[in-house]
Amino acid sequence: MSSRDTGTRNTGLSPSGLKAHPPPEAARRARRFGSFYFAEHVLRSMRGYGWTIVASSVGTPVVYLFAMGIGLASLVDARAGNQGIGDVSYLTFVAPALLVTAAIMVANEEFSYPVMAGFKWRRIYHGPNASPLSSSQIATGHLMAVAVRLIFTCGIYFLIMMLFGAVPEATGWLAAVVAVVCGLSFGLPLMAYAAGIEEEKGQFPMVMRFVVTPLFLFSGTVFPLDSLPMVVRWIGWLSPLWHGTELGRVFSYDYAEPVWLSVVHVVYLVALALAGWAIAKRRYTRRLGK
Amino acid sequence: MHTNVSTKSVISARNLTKAYGEFKAVDDISFEVPAGESFGLLGPNGAGKSTAMRMIGGVSGRTLGELDIMGLDPEQHGPEVRAHLGVVPQQDNLDEDLKVRDNLIVYGRYFGLPLSYLRPKADELLEFAQLSDRAGAKVDALSGGMKRRLTIARSLINDPKILLLDEPTTGLDPQARHTLWDRLFRLKEAGVTLILTTHYMDEAEQLCDRLIVVDSGSIMAEGSPSSLIKQYSTREVLELRFGAERNAAMAGRLEGVGERLEALPDRVLIYTNDGESALEEVTGAGLHPITSLVRRASLEDVFLRLTGRSLIE
Question: Which of these three, B171, B194, B224, is where a domain ends?
Answer without folding.
Answer: B224
